Amino acid sequence: MNQVLINVTKENIQMGEKWNFSRCPIGIALRQNFPYSKIWVGIWSFMIDNKTFEMPENVKTFNMFFDLGKPVEPISFEINL
Question: Which of 4, 16, 30, 69 is the most exposed place for a label (fewest CB within 10 A)?
Fold first, then answer.
C-alpha cells in the first residue's frame, strides 16, 4: 500500500474558500499531490477520482472550523492509496 503525505499549508488556508468542495484548503493540498485527478471534499470524507477516503478526526475538525470561519493552523495527514 502506498502512503502519501498531504500537507495543508498556511498558503492553502489563505487561498481556501469556505464551503467549496474543491477549493477549500484540503482540496488545494490534495490537488498539489494529485494535479490531474478529480478532487471532491465533503464534511467527513474526500474523493480522489472515484476513490473515497474518510478524513482523520483532526482533519474533520480542521475542515469544520475552517468552514465556520474559526482560526485554523496548517496540518498534515497521510492517506493510503
Answer: 69
Per-residue pLDDT at 1 exceeds 80: no
Question: Residue 73: its pLDDT value, please?
Answer: 98
Return all residues near 71 (Cβ < 8 A) that are at least 6 apart. 65
The grid coordinates of residue 66 equal 475552517
Please state, rounded to an integer, the average pLDDT across all residues of the chain.
Answer: 96
Q: What is the C-alpha separation between 14 and 3, in angstroms, rounded?
A: 26
Domain total of the chain: 1
Q: Write the DSSP symbol of residue 1.
A: -
Say what the pLDDT of residue 74 is: 98
